Backbone:
């Protein structure tokens, strides 16, 4: 069974206080029984393009969760692909109710430092998931409908200075590894800095590719040895955007390219100055524009 | 007694685990033309041994854009270039990355009604016929159905 956390932080009055979890959750929950093995979990994650699989017990109730982080840890420990999910899953599963406000679900996610929350019904069965990309969709629509939105920017250029740019929201540090580093070293960096992906650079310092947790899961599934070079499993070319572009442009690029983060460059295109993740975008809670600080936010009554 | 051996197809197309998803998709089209039937699933064979099954559904799941469920919220999203983007991804992912490895199989000597029961219970439409994991053929639900029609009805 999943557990519900009592909210300790005071809920802010934002756009998300008026929306319910059931309005923005995904109703497709990807699950596997706990006697399944880790290679099945990797294939499921790749095929369904999800970041996690819910592990269920004999009654079909949530027992644990396998995220790309658990998969990376199992790879690092050089454990066989036949290890059962019950041995490596993280538990308990943090859950919320479909009638909770989006704001309270976000507070819970922040408190528990998780990227997705499972929505359970009264019987404890998982009926949906809520993750940052789902919230980004709401945020995006709200911004486009707003009078200060990008779409209307040409008519209201006075407000242009109020827009958030990628630079305002991005994490201004970039963690890199060399393309000659081993996979073990890449995993150590990813986990010690708690990152989703590393920028891989070559000897001359130029960006050569990216290694995300998805790339590591694929490498594990394909039996790539841990002492292989980063070069063997990295993805290239690096998807980049300029730091002075509006936040929506970054969101658009990520959604479109099916990636969770973009590397950001300044005036010099060869130098990465930061990383923008979909989670960063979603955490910029009250919209992507300073025009709607939580006090002034306008939500249309439905 | 009628067994799997009588109703299985011994002429079939299969996939290699290391084949890219892009090439596998072409293989589905090619196999459908050659076999004169819509091929919805293919066995994945390595060194004559069955290692998995890839279905058209597996491919379609992978071709679905990741955040498509929130596109409704993003009506102004410019989707030009989307096909190129998905197409590039299919060249990085292999058959073995998304195939099903838990494959239900039968033996040559399995009774036709046992095969029928397995197909009904597991909701599957094709069952590989194996001898010690070596593939001998495949039973399609349509062949089984028409065999029953000819012999029973």
Residues:
């Amino acid at each position: 069974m999943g557990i519900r956390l009592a909210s300790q932080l005071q809920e802010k009055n934002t756009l998300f206080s008026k929306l319910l979890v059931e309005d923005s959750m995904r109703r497709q929950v990807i699950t596997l029984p706990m006697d399944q093995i880790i290679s099945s979990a990797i294939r499921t994650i790749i095929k369904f393009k999800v970041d996690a699989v819910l592990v269920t017990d004999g009654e079909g109730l949530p027992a644990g969760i396998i995220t790309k982080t658990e998969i990376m840890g199992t790879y690092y420990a050089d454990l066989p692909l036949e290890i059962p999910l019950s041995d490596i899953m993280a538990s308990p599963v943090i859950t919320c109710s479909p009638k909770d406000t989006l704001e309270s679900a976000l507070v819970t996610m922040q408190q528990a430092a998780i990227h997705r929350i499972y929505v359970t019904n009264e019987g404890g069965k998982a009926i949906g998931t809520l993750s940052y990309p789902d919230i980004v969709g709401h945020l995006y629509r709200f911004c486009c409908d707003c009078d200060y939105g990008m779409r209307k920017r040409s008519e209201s250029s006075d407000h242009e200075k109020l827009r958030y740019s990628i630079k305002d929201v991005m994490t201004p540090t970039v963690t890199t590894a060399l393309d000659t580093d081993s996979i073990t070293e890449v995993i150590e960096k990813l986990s010690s800095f708690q990152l989703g992906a590393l920028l891989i650079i070559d000897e001359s310092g130029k960006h050569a590719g990216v290694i995300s947790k998805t790339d590591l899961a694929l490498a594990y599934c394909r039996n790539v040895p841990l002492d292989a070079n980063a070069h063997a499993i990295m993805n290239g070319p690096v998807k980049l955007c300029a730091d002075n572009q509006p936040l929506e442009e970054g969101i658009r690029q990520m959604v479109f390219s099916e990636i969770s983060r973009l590397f950001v460059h300044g005036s010099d295109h060869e130098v990465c100055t930061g990383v923008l993740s979909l989670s960063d975008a979603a955490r910029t809670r009250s919209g992507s524009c300073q025009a709607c600080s939580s006090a002034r936010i306008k939500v249309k009554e439905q | 007694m009628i067994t799997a051996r009588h109703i299985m197809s011994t002429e079939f197309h299969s996939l290699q685990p290391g084949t890219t998803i892009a090439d596998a998709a072409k293989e589905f089209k090619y196999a459908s033309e050659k076999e004169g039937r819509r091929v919805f699933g293919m066995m994945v064979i390595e060194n004559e041994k069955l290692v998995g099954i890839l279905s058209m559904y597996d491919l379609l799941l992978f071709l679905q854009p990741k955040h498509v469920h929130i596109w409704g919220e993003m009506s102004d999203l410019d989707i030009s270039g989307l096909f190129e983007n998905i197409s590039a991804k299919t060249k990085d992912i292999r058959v073995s990355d998304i195939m099903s490895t838990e494959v239900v199989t039968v033996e040559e000597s399995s009774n036709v009604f046992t095969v029928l029961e397995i197909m009904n219970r597991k909701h599957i439409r094709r069952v590989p016929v194996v001898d010690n994991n070596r593939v001998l053929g495949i039973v399609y639900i349509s062949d089984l159905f028409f065999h029953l029609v000819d012999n029973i009805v």
Remarks:
- DSSP finds twelve helices and twelve strands in chain A.
- The domain at 166-283 of chain A is CATH 3.10.580.10 (CBS-domain).
- Chain A touches chain B through 27 residues (CB under 8 Å).
